[in-house]
Amino acid sequence: MTMDVTIYHNPDCGTSRNTLAMIRNAGIEPTVIEYLKTPPARDRLLRMIADAGLTVRQAIREKGTPYAELGLDNPALTDDQLLDAMLKDPILINRPFVITPLGTRLARPSEVVLDILPDTHKGPFAKEDGEQVLDAEGKRLV
Fold this sequence. Notes:
By secondary structure, the chain is α+β, with helices and mostly antiparallel strands. It is about 25% helix and about 15% strand. The chain has helices spanning about 15-25, 40-50, 80-90, and strands at about 5-10, 30-35, 95-100, 105, 125, 130-135. It has a four-stranded mixed sheet with strand order 2-1-3-4, sandwiched between helices. A two-stranded antiparallel ribbon has the order 5-6. Pfam families: ArsC.
């Protein structure tokens, strides 16, 4: 299937790997951007966050990042200050963001990506942990 899909991916993240595998299971080869190596531009990041229906604060990753050490939990910080931190240290950008013509999502949990993919899945799909997401006909279970 030809569909313009972009995933902001971290290959060390199981959720990101599962999301990428679900996109490929739909017969789509996405543009994969390893955002730790190539972070999005500020305007692109802001647009992805808005298009996904999130606030900037909701798009920040806390676990496994310098979030607490940087004091990013301070509610007085503005969106601009939070974006500055995310762009300076891209590990603070939650992942994976996926952009398709059907919408933009922060795919957490990974099966959220199914909301913005066509129904072209090829058979069953299980996440790395064994959780079955699609049945033998490629229909969503969760």
